Amino acid sequence: MGRIVVTEFVSLDGVVEDPGGAEDFKYGGWSFEIARGDEGDRFKLDEALDADALLLGRVTYEGFAAAWPSRDGEFADKFNTMPKWVVSSTLEDPEWNNSTVLRGDVAEEVSKLKQGQDGDIVVHGSPQLVQTLLAHDLVDEFRLMVYPVVLGTGKRLFGDTSDKKRLRLADSKMVGDGIAILVYQPAAEEAEA
Questions:
Q1: Which residues pair with 98 in a beta bridge?
Q2: pLDDT, tens only, 101-139
Q3: What does pTM read for this prediction?
């Protein structure tokens, strides 16, 4: 059975929009303004190499599909060859290697995906998709690289949820110029009693 792992670059005020600068956001590329250092780079490379598949929303998928096929190296090679699922009701024919469109009820389709795929199914960006997965208790782990910057505007990782979601801190460390890597997992039910 697969695990849904959400990985995000996030500002102190919860913004995840356009950390790489490809989406025409007012502060696009904000994550590149703060060095994550060798340890932060290693964390992201290990995360990519350990992933078994990608699950992406359409906007993130299209950004990745435009960027990664023309790149090479360990990270790009892994992204370009592993299975990719994109949640979209409008994308007809995904062109990026090993890509499949998931249609219909997102929670139902992702539940099936988890049952049929082993290992880590990693979600990058895709805030709308992440909010849906969280609402349906489908996220097994959050890996947040929290950057010491307040953007004040932009798409936020956490919006309204269907209910309170209790998490537990599984790991944390500081890298680069003050970036906190925080790994959260759902808290056990008895912790809420």
A1: none
A2: 999 999 999 999 999 999 999 999 999 999 999 999 999
A3: 0.93
Q: How far apart are CA 109 and CA 115, in angstroms?
A: 10
Q: How far apart are CA 157 and CA 117, in angstroms?
A: 25
* Both tokens assigned to 111: 């539940």
CA atoms within 13 A on the CB side of 12: 8
Burial of 45: CB neighbours in 10 Å, binned 0-12, 13-18, 19+ = middle
User: Which position has the token pair 């969280």?
Assistant: 134
Handedness of CA 69, 145, 1, 139 (dihedral sign): negative
Four-residue CA torsion sign, 26, 70, 157, 13: negative
Helical residues (DSSP H) of the chain, grouped into ranges:
37-50, 58-67, 74-81, 106-116, 127-135
